[in-house]
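Before our next group meeting I need something from you. Please put the record directly below this note.
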Amino acid sequence: MTSDTIVRVGVLGAGAWARGAHLPGYRRDPRCTVVAIADVEIDRARDAAREFDIPVAVADPRELVRRDDIDLIDVCTPSQTHFELAWSALEAGKHVLCEKPVAYDYRDTERARDLARQQKLKTKVGLTFRYSPAMRYMRELVAGGFIGTPFVFNGYEQNSQWLDPTNPLRQVDPDADQSILQVSSLEGYGAPIIDLAHLVVGSDLSQVVGTMRNFIPERMVRATGRMMRMNIDDGDIFLGEFANGALCSVQTSFVTIGNYPGIEARVYGSKGALICRLVEEAGICETLRAATPDQVEFRELEIPARCYPPGG
């Protein structure tokens, strides 16, 4: 596949996230075209196909995966189906974009990675905050030596989307073992922050220690419309060390008051520091601020046009 090839996409899942994020993105990017969409609820697939001018809508995801006119499979289905569908796409020789998590067991994710490498296929997880212009510029400055040697990374994703217990959580299994704390905020919010930490610091986390809490135990279940005990983590915090010796702290929650998404990344080094925020309380979409030893008051930086991705 060359740089001027139009990527032919097949989308698995026609739910709210596919229709609110994935499909609008494909529609405004001239480098790709959506060939087909699949959803086990065929009417939902057909509705999405009509809305986004997609030629084919099917109920069976494997029927879509087997098509010869598709280069890339986008897995945008409930979390528990991700691995099986991504694996079948790789076996069929398709490149894969998969929403998080790829699998519930990291060893399965490693298996999928190894299969993709054997097949010489490209894979990507749907972690999009790294493409924010402010985040791109932050990474560029750190890589260029603006802060010197990175010492400490602090990451936060906090907002009050589900502070109201009558607002049903997405993709929560009401039949899960409620005697065990189920991962929720750490998976949904922690994963993007860990991705940003690796991106900015330029090193992998080597060890972590942390804790999770269930602050609001009674919640509405979307499938039943009833309140019930949901033993999930709705807030978590951990400390970590990177392979290069830098340190980090990460804090996430969807019951802490603030705007969505409530992303903040801070990095402190031997020559300077940077603070990136996505969605300010004042309504500004994103900001990047910097400080240096001779100018310790953080000042806002202008984000260069080159940091804005193609497609808007």
Remarks:
- The chain has two domains: 7-125, 130-307.
- The two ends are 23 Å apart (CA to CA).
- The CA atoms of residues 289 and 299 lie 5 Å apart.
